[in-house]
Specification:
- It comes from Pontiella desulfatans.
- InterPro entries: PQQ_rpt_dom, Quinoprotein_ADH-like_sf, WD40/YVTN_repeat-like_dom_sf.
- This is Pyrrolo-quinoline quinone repeat domain-containing protein.
- The chain is built from three helices and 40 strands.
- The strands form ten sheets. It has a five-stranded antiparallel beta sheet with strand order 3-2-1-5-4, with no helix packed on it. Strands 9-40-39-38 form a four-stranded antiparallel beta sheet, with no helix packed on it.
- The two termini are about 35 Å apart.
């Protein structure tokens, strides 16, 4: 094997992280610099040896940056394609001296606000984007890509976006250029899934991007791993066939969670949760529990110095059962379980847990409400409080400065995180101006005006960026909102389209927002819409 070394550059907050693997014939050992506690990805599958190519990567706790592969000699390569950002390496006697020619100001341009998985890099609905245009009437639609049938949100790393949709009898996993929407590669997976309630039959789960690989889970339970660079399919698992599962109410919905060397999936039906080797797809462990597959995505966190896996389970079962599981991600051992589920048969747990420190908030609809739990040093749950102040159907609330914000059905709620008390609850509405919607077949303005009482967002979805919230209503109304304990202020609004089932939260990345229109409306077919929220760096748009 021809030996190569990899230099990894990443950012987490304002810190610069550098990792230099030592290459042997069989393994790569990674030394971490800059105080990063993140795992960095294995490199073997990314590049052929001896090619100076840069690729984005993401760590398990939100680290993101570039992957540079190089032969063992002197060279100089650009970082992020910028002329003024480069890294010079000198290999002598297998000892690497690294000179990082980056100023703090330049580092700010290297760090990109990626969105590599469901709910973003931190799995919390927050983006580090800044300087975004507040007036939505001024933003432009950059491109629109066919959506197919899908509720899946796209995922972004660097200049690549992964979209997962159904077209006919196949689910298509596509990689697009974020700036142009141009397809870079695609792979198709046959499917026979049909939603039994006549909703869309396409994918629900969002892709996860990590270590130069893309992980997707289709509605029929087909788990795939592709290479980010060229779309090569690396492995596939057919979960329904292999584990003798059912599609239950709405198919497979939880997004894959990459934790360490594992891909975590909420299976349901007695198997409950499984871990697969992220490199090979081989089963690592299966953690059995009677609680079924929910529609909330699993999350991982560090508590009391150890990693824990939190799975909010509960889907189709009779009687309806479910709740929160605390699991050791290395072995699948269940530390504790806390029952939390609506007594209605036609209900599911769908809102992803919100984590802060050792505390977790989970919520269910249908008169259940929410509960705050604390994980004790022995990894058992302690109930802190129960509240009816917030009851989420499926939208995951966002924690900002000690307050939780989110939609409980069609009402926007602010809840005190420490006490569970409701600070306020409103039905946010806008005037007619916001309903200057697209004309038939265009993304311009129309004569549509809402009937009395319709000027709201329904069950909206929120993301937080630049000190405010971007809200997408379930019928295509987009708005910037200022949400504080003092109240809700709509800063600007715009209707991109008029279509129902707009249940996919917006995604933000490098000055752009990606909005999913899931159903036809106003003569416009379903599409993934890219809007520009701030000027894109000229050198990036020129491809330099």
């Amino acid at each position: 094997m021809e030996q190569t070394d990899q230099l990894l550059l990443g950012s987490l907050g304002n810190q610069l992280h550098i990792a230099v693997p030592k290459v042997t014939d069989k393994t790569r050992h990674v030394k971490r610099f800059g105080g990063s506690a993140n795992r960095v990805a294995e490199a073997d599958a990314l590049n052929p040896a001896g090619k100076n190519r840069a690729h984005p990567f993401a760590g398990t706790t939100g680290t993101h940056g570039l992957f540079i592969s190089h032969p063992m000699d002197d060279f100089k390569v650009p970082i992020l394609g910028k002329k003024d950002l480069s890294c010079s390496l000198n290999m002598q006697n297998n000892a690497m001296s690294i000179r990082i020619l980056i100023t703090l100001m330049a580092m700010a341009t290297v760090a990109q606000a990626d969105w590599p998985r469901f709910l973003g890099a931190g799995c919390d609905g927050k983006s580090s984007e800044a300087g975004l245009e507040t007036d939505l009437s001024k933003v432009e639609v950059a491109w629109v890509h066919p959506r197919g049938e899908s509720y899946s949100a796209p995922s972004i790393l660097g200049d690549r976006l992964i979209h997962h949709g159904r077209f006919g009898d196949v689910e298509r996993i596509e990689c697009l250029d974020t700036a142009t929407g141009k397809p870079l590669w695609a792979d198709e997976v046959p499917t026979t899934y049909r939603d039994r309630f006549n909703y869309l039959s396409g994918p629900r789960a969002s892709p996860s991007i990590e270590g130069g690989r893309v992980y997707t889970l289709g509605a029929q339970g087909i788990l795939c791993c592709h290479q980010l660079t060229d779309g090569k399919r690396l492995w596939r698992r057919k979960l329904i066939e292999e584990f003798k599962l059912d599609t239950e109410f709405f198919g497979f919905t939880p997004s894959p969670l990459i934790e360490g060397d594992s891909v975590i999936i909420n299976l349901g039906m007695g198997k409950c949760v499984a871990a697969f080797d992220k490199m090979t797809g081989k089963t690592q462990w299966v953690s059995g529990d009677q609680w079924g597959r929910s529609y909330a995505s699993p999350v991982a966190a560090t508590m009391h110095g150890q990693r824990v896996l939190l799975v909010f389970a509960g889907g189709e079962s009779n009687p309806p059962v479910g709740g929160l599981l605390c699991i050791d991600p290395s072995s699948g051992k269940i530390h504790d379980r806390f029952a939390w589920r609506s007594p209605r048969h036609a209900s599911v747990n769908a809102s992803t847990p919100v984590v802060d420190g050792n505390r977790i908030f989970i919520s269910s609809s249908y008169d259940v409400g929410g509960v705050m739990l604390e994980v004790l040093p022995d990894f058992t749950f302690k109930e802190v409080y129960r509240t009816k102040a917030y009851a989420s159907h499926w939208a995951t609330p966002i924690l900002v400065d000690g307050h939780l914000y989110g939609f409980a059905n069609n009402k926007l709620v602010c809840m005190d995180w420490k006490t569970g008390e409701r600070v306020w609850r409103v039905v946010p509405k806008v005037g007619d101006a916001a309903f200057e919607s697209p004309e038939t077949g265009t993304y311009g303005a129309s004569k549509y005006r809402p009937p009395p009482g319709e000027g709201g967002f329904g069950i909206g979805s929120l993301v937080h960026a630049d000190g405010r919230f971007l809200c997408l209503g379930e019928n295509g109304l987009l708005a910037w909102m200022k949400l504080t304990p003092e109240g809700c202020t709509i800063l600007s609004s715009r209707r991109l389209f008029k279509a129902d089932q707009t249940w996919t939260a917006p995604v933000l990345g490098d000055g752009r927002a990606y909005i999913c229109q899931n159903l036809p409306g106003n003569g416009i077919e379903p599409g993934l819409i890219c809007i520009v929220l701030k000027p894109i760096r000229q050198e990036q748009s020129d491809g330099k």
